[in-house]
Amino acid sequence: SILDLLPGPWQEARTEDEQVTLLQQVQLAEAQGRNVQQFAKWQLEFGDRGLGSNIVVPRISYVGMGKDIRVFVTGVVILGDESDAERISRMHVRKDGRFEPGFQDSIIATTDEAKWRQ
């Protein structure tokens, strides 16, 4: 998985207990609105270019609803390298769906690529 390919805190979470603790840290930082600061701390800790480092951070994802819901761990890539960010943003314009509830289909939140390109 991407969690094993890029540097980040997941690679140091070797046991299941350490992984659960890390996922709790990620969720708490997000709930407290300080996930960006946490990501920056991890860029400095695990990256090789300071805040210009690309890292991967684990996130719990949910697919489905009710009794059919599936829960799994995914990786979120934090692009700190400006050249990588520019190159990838030209190819991949879809936004993170977590912003849609608050910003509906605005330019910052739409997951509809065709609409965004208009």
Task: Describe the overall structure.
The protein is 43% helix and 15% strand. It has helices at residues 2-5, 16-31, 35-46, 82-91, 100-103, 113-117, and strands at residues 55-63, 70-78. It has a two-stranded antiparallel sheet. With 118 residues, the chain is α+β, with helices and mostly antiparallel strands. The protein has six helices and two strands, in the order H-H-H-E-E-H-H-H.
How do the strands and helices of this protein lay out in sequence?
Blueprint: H1 2-5, H2 16-31, H3 35-46, E1 55-63, E2 70-78, H4 82-91, H5 100-103, H6 113-117
Antiparallel strand pairs: 1-2
Helix pairs in contact: 2-3
Mean pLDDT: 86
From the alpha carbons, calculate the radius of gyration and give it in angstroms. Answer: 16 Å
* Helix run count: 6
Largest sheet: 2 strands, antiparallel
Short overview:
The protein has 118 residues and is of the alpha+beta class.
Q: What are its keywords?
A:
118 residues, alpha+beta, 6 helices, globular
